């Protein structure tokens, strides 16, 4: 596959360092609050990359950390009068709830910062020994940025320009404003660990370097994260790891784009801030996951509830088509027919195009376009009175169904039983429209009775009443079903 490598600023053919083994590290959450839609995007993007690499036959060691000690966690803990560890534990639990709902597979390893303090102290000591870091009288340890020649190469920053914008804050004992903390001396009331430099705790950037080295044979094949992490976090990881090991830290750097809300930057102060919970209170998790895959992962993604509603329609079309294929395949007699050569050729091409889209820098938006082409192909078979009942039609339906299942396993969407999902989707839409399904059922029963009694005026009146509630009725041989208009 070809992957866009931030380090090289171009797409490159992806080749793992060790045969078929892929070491992939993605920066995880800082556990101090509920996850927002930006976290959802990053999680879904790297979940699809993980699934795709496995689908292509790679043996993937996927490492995703938890930052469970940090300024933000300590601040939150002080606000609510709890221990930092309690806050971290609570929000790691909430994170899993959201991730499970979004159908995110668990990584191979999920290391926590606080469980790797000795590794971080050892890495800091190595950097001091090599002249890349120094301890201050008050017990902080800083990385000496100018001692690392390649600083700025990942994010494309120039060190002199960075220098001109940097200041040393009052009370800091840095030698150079560019230097960043590897280890922070404990302030009163903060959690701390013993170290050669006194009581303190690790800086944020250090953990990813220490845990990458512990759980993978460096260089990492892929290091990922949101675009907002490229600088300073990832730049500092590169400096720490490469200065300590003398080896490249990661061969491919993959960054997903921002999420914007109605074309504006998302922020708590603008009041346009959505947690995953806010969204899943109104929409099914799969709708959100599908929506996140409708844009290329590097493009900015513009979130709005209108856009989510559009995505919901797309997902409904996919499941409705899968449902129809199931219904067609339930036929027990099939007629002999000539081989539908042209349609089979079309499907061959679609399979190829889907694979090409995914191999081209994980182009899920393009891949979804081919999913819709496959659905339209199934629709054309279903509309052809002869073909749909023939063995050729059966084979096409079966193959489209198998393709869709294969694609679903890579994208992590439309994996559910279609009939079951469509009912859930209907109830979700009904809830948003303020429709009470029990009331609808009651009216449908009354309508069935009226029809039995041949009271057509009454049955029509009930139908009108349902229409006024935004409910449409479908009469089927098994009885009436309903949907939200
Ligand atoms: Zn990181
Ligand atoms: Zn496949």
Automatic annotation (TrEMBL):
List the keywords (alphabetical).
Answer: Aminoacyl-tRNA synthetase, ATP-binding, Cytoplasm, Ligase, Metal-binding, Nucleotide-binding, Protein biosynthesis, Zinc
Q: Binding of Zn(2+): at which residues?
A: 27, 208, 233, 237
The answer on whether this UniProt entry bears the keyword Zinc reads yes
Cofactor, free-text remark = Binds 1 zinc ion per subunit.
Sites where the protein binds ATP: 268
Alphabetized GO MF terms: ATP binding; cysteine-tRNA ligase activity; zinc ion binding
One GO CC annotation: cytosol
Sequence motif 'HIGH' region, location on chain: 29-39
- Compartment(s): Cytoplasm
Name what cofactor the protein needs: Zn(2+)
Catalytic activity, reaction form: tRNA(Cys) + L-cysteine + ATP = L-cysteinyl-tRNA(Cys) + AMP + diphosphate
Q: Which GO terms describe its biological process?
A: cysteinyl-tRNA aminoacylation
List, for all copies, the residue spans of the domain called Cysteinyl-tRNA synthetase class Ia DALR.
353-422
> Which residues, if any, are the signal sequence?
none
What Enzyme Commission number does this protein have? Answer: 6.1.1.16
Q: What is its main location?
A: cytoplasm
What stretch of residues is annotated with the motif 'KMSKS' region? 265-269
Classification via InterPro entries: Cys-tRNA-ligase, Cys-tRNA-synt_Ia_DALR, Cys-tRNA/MSH_ligase, CysS_C, Rossmann-like_a/b/a_fold, tRNA-synt_1_cat_dom, tRNAsynth_Ia_anticodon-bd
Query: Mind telling me which PANTHER family this protein's record contains?
Result: CYSTEINE--TRNA LIGASE, CYTOPLASMIC (PTHR10890:SF3), CYSTEINYL-TRNA SYNTHETASE (PTHR10890)
Q: How does it assemble?
A: Monomer.
The entry assigns this protein to a family as follows: Belongs to the class-I aminoacyl-tRNA synthetase family.
Protein's recorded name: Cysteine--tRNA ligase
> In which organism is this protein found?
Pseudodesulfovibrio mercurii
Per the UniProt record, the lineage of the source organism begins with: Bacteria, Pseudomonadati, Thermodesulfobacteriota, Desulfovibrionia, Desulfovibrionales
